[in-house]
Every structure is written in C-alpha cells, then in structure tokens.
User: What shape does this take?
Amino acid sequence: MKPVVKTKLARRVFLPIIIAAIVLSVVSGAFSYWQSTELVRDKAHSLADQLLQATEVGVAGSSSSHQLQRVVEALAANPGVEQLVVGRPDRGRILAAHDPALRDQDWATLVQSSFPAEHYQALMEANGPVRLATDDTLHAMRRMEAGRVNLVDRGSGEAYILLSMKSDGSMGLFQRSVIVSLSGAVLALLVYGLLTGWVVRRYVLNPVWTLERTMRARKAGDRESRSSLTRDDELGRLGRSLDRLLDQEDRHLGLYQQIFERHDAVQWLVDPREGVLVDVNAAAARFYGYSRTEMRGMRVTRINMLPPDEVAAAMERVRSGQQAALYFPHRLASGEVREVEVHSGSVNVGGREYLHSIIHDITERQELARNRRQLVEILEAAPQFISMSEANGRVTYVNRKGREMVGDRLPETDPDTGEPPRFPDALYWVHPEWAVKRLVEEAMPAAARDGHWEGETALLANGGEELSLYQVVIAHRDEAGRVERFSTVAQDISDRKRQERALRFQASHDALTGLYNRRYTQRALQRELQLGQRTGQPVSAVLFDLDHFKRVNDTHGHAAGDRVLKRLAELVRARVRDTDIAGRWGGEEFMLVLPGTDDAGAEQVAETLRQKVEGCEFPTVGRVTVSVGYAEASATENVDELFKRVDEALYAAKRAGRNQSRRAVPSAGSAGGTAARS
Assistant: This one.
C-alpha cells in the first residue's frame, strides 16, 4: 500500500476514507463485526460498479492503447484492487492492465490461471460484480459493444473489463447492547458512502468524463476542443498530456489536413489488415452519399463491388509496391455504381501501416472510351472512304475502306520527311490534279467558313483509273472557334455515274446506230435555230435516207439491214464535226444539224456524204445509195417548217432518180446565209 498511498490521487481519494473508518471504529465501539463486514462488502460492490463505469468511460474515451493503459493504471491505484484488465477475447489479446507487463499478453492464459471455467462463465453472464463460491474476493466483468471502442491502433471490436477486488471482513454477532452504536455506525456509513461517492466523482469520474467529452468533440471534427484539466494528479497530468498531443497533432497534420480535408479529390485512409475505412475527407462523403461518421469504420467491401478476396489481393499489391493504380466498380449510398480509378500509397502512422487512396470517378471517361471504340468499329466497317486530318494538314486517320481504295499510295509517313503525310502532298498521291485543286481551293475554305462542304471529286484507283466520289468535308472547331481538324466522308459513285451516263446515252441515242435519236436531234435543232436567230449565225439541216432499203431487208434479211444502218452511222460520224449533231430520224432516215453552216456548206456536206456512201462496200449487200435533201434555216423558221422543206427536197431527189442531193426551196422571206462551212 505504501507506493500507492504516496501518490496524490491515492491520498485525495482514500485518505478521507481511512479517517472515516477510524472515526467509525471509535464511535461504534463494539459494533457487530458481522454487520461491519457486510457493510464493507456492500461498499465493495458499489465501488466495483463505479470502477467498472469509470474504466468503461476510460476505454470509450481513449483513442490509443497507450492512453488507455494510463487510465487503467490510474484506476487500479484504488486500494483493494487486485486486478484490473481490459482485453479483447475475440482477438485473444490484453489491451491494458494494472500491471504493464500483462499488456499484449494472451487473454485466455490470464483467465485460465485466475478462474475455473464455470466461474468465468458466471462472470460473463452477470456482466457486473459477483462473489464466486468459496472466494472472498469480489470479481466483476463488463462487456463493451464494438461501436464504443475507438482505438485507432487496435481496430474495431468489442472489449471486456475484468476487475478483482478485496472483500475484507469476517462474520460477527449482532449485539443488542450495541444498538446505539449500530445506529451511529449506520449514520457514519451513510456519511462514508456520500463522502466516497463525492470523492470518486470529483477526483475520478469528472476528469474521466472531461477526457471523454474532449475525445468525442475531436471525433466530431472540433479541432479546438481540449480537456483543460489543471489538477496536479495523474488524471490532470493525463489531460494535459492529451492536450499537448492534440496540439502536436494539429501542428504536424495541419498541412495534411488542408490537403485531405479541403481538396476536391475523393480521399480516404484504409486499414488494409482490417479492410475498414479509418478516415475519409468531405469530398468522399459527398461523392459516396454517406456522412463522414458513417464511413469511418465502414468495411471497404460495402463500397467496392469486387469479391473480398480480390479487394484484399489488390491492397496487397499496393502494399508491396507492385501496383499503384487500381480500377474498381464502387457502389454509392444511392445504389448507383460508378467506375473509379484508385491511386493508393502505403503510409505508416504510429507503427501501423495504412493505405492512403485518392479516387477519381472515371465513369464518363470509360463510357467515352467505349463509345470511341464503338465509333472506330463503325468507321472501320463503313463502306465509305473516311479520313481525318489536323488543321495543319497532318493525316491522322484513314478507315479500312479508305486504305483499301488508296492501297499503298498513302504511306503512314512521308518518305522524304519521315513524318505523317500532310495536305496537299497527300492529296496528290491519291486524287487526280483537278480533284486536288477543287479540294484545296473550294472544299477546304468552304468547310472552314460554313462548317461543311459537299460535292463531286475523284480518286485515283490502284490501276490509275479515276473513281468518281461524292465527298463531304467537315471542319471541326475547338472551344475558341478555331478550326483544329477536318474530316471527310467520300462515297464511291463510279457505278452510279456509269449508270447515269448509260441512262443519259439511252435517253438521247439510238440503240442500233449509236447516233442521237429523233427526240434529241429535234431538240438540238430547235436549240440551234433559237441560237442562230439571236446571234445571226446560219444553221442548216441535211435529211437523207437509204434508197430501196426495203429491198435490202427483203432480200438479205433485217440483220443485214441493221448492219447496213450501223455502217452508214460510222460513215456519218467520220464526216461530221464535233459541233454537228448526227441523228437517226426514223427507220432508214437520218438528220444532220449543222450550226454555223449556210446553204453552200450544207450542199458540200450533202454531196460528200452521198459520194462516200456510194463508194463504200457494205457487208452482205454490197453497194447502196442515199438520197439527200438540205436547206439553210431562215431567220424566222421553226423546226417543223425547216423539216418540211428538207423533207420535200429529199423526196424531190428520190423522184429525180435517187442517189442525188437536192436543195430545199427557200422559205418565204429567207435572206439566205453567207457563212461558209469549214
């Protein structure tokens, strides 16, 4: 007892109790020993309850096992306390004890050496003070829920408080003669109990409660909270030590707190062994939708959707330095799942390793990447030529169809510079010159001005032929409105163009001879007549047909007649100018429209053509002849009027014996032409 009594706390707590006991012994005199013993035992029960409560408050208010050890040693200084231990049976370790040597010892070893199994079971069921059979020592045990234990360096979990106290006093006889002394003793005991309660409350419980309130306030985020204990005893020194530790923590963690608390990035601190969140910043609480209090102590697997073994394996890779960035699906409080990128690093606090993680929400980025991959797949599968280039002309992308169309004529790098190909050099490799000129001088400026341009261009195929393209050029701008890139989509329309040309040819040409048909020839004659009337230039028409063509068909068959017509068309095409129109008027009749040609020129054409036919040997039938009528159009004459005149001239030639050419009778008011045929 001597070392204990020397402490100030022991003197303040137990010296008044000793004095009260002496007074009681003098006043009560022959007070019944049995009665005093029972009173002492009852008081021991009360004190045990108070010490359990004080220890429970100390455990709940301690943030570390070192701080808890200090509190337990102070409470164990109470006279009569034989054993005061705080442990965690589920972990098998003692957190704090009256004897510092017992700290971190095995809980089961202590229990087995102190109690039989049935006595230990009775203590657990009582959850308070109990006197075991054949044992004069008062034993007590109290169970604390996991939520009240907040030891950062020990993790979460429930805790047990084990207390053993002396229960002095022996059985005595109650004497009737000392009834007065008994009454005085009862009064003295009442005073003793009040004095003891006041002393314990003032010198033990109030300081412990102050420490508890301080720790709760700190846990709630009040960085200004301090215990402010000024007493000159163990608990006072413990309070001042706590205040100094909090001040030191604030100084050392000031920069970290600013980074951790105020930064917009989601951050948290994880205990990798326990798999729980030790702390999170405000940004994390906002992102996940929980309060910071809810997230502290939360298991990581409640948020991380991967299986627990995969999460543990990922943490181990971070701890070993094998991997710094991790990718996980995280579930928010709302149930929404977000894809995150976690950058973690190992930190050591108080000899314990933690993982500090910075978390980035990459859901939109991942979705954008998936969309980009899908877009590339679409572009690669597209049947159109698609390419992209930067505003400075560097080609950045050509899809599969484009690569097939240009072959190896568009290399990935310029053979001269070794850099990616640039406009307009790359254009000359794959486009004909006229198409390059249109793209550079028309398409690109129009797209930069209007956003897009569309029109027909051409591409050089591998064989050197031109492929007709219908091309769209699109200009893409940055946030400042500057053109930063161009993209183009081109469709091969060569087949369509060939079909269009074929349709146009069929619509305007005779299928057998390849000359213009009557409809086109008639329109061309009308157009030339109107032009001649506006400009004063002469226009002539020549109408001719084969003599006795029916006899050819009847004698040699229609196939031979068709060959004659084809051969005649060849002779006509060889004689006329590019500006002349040669058409099949119908059957064996043909019409020549001669712009810029007067009567004399028409006569020359008619005679030359008649002579060419007469001197030509036709397949199967031999020689044939033609009869020709010609005329120069008057200034006011229309197509029907001109045709009527040359038709009459044609039949005049036939009546005169065929194989002749006749000039049509001039129309009324005709002035005749003066221009000679070239």
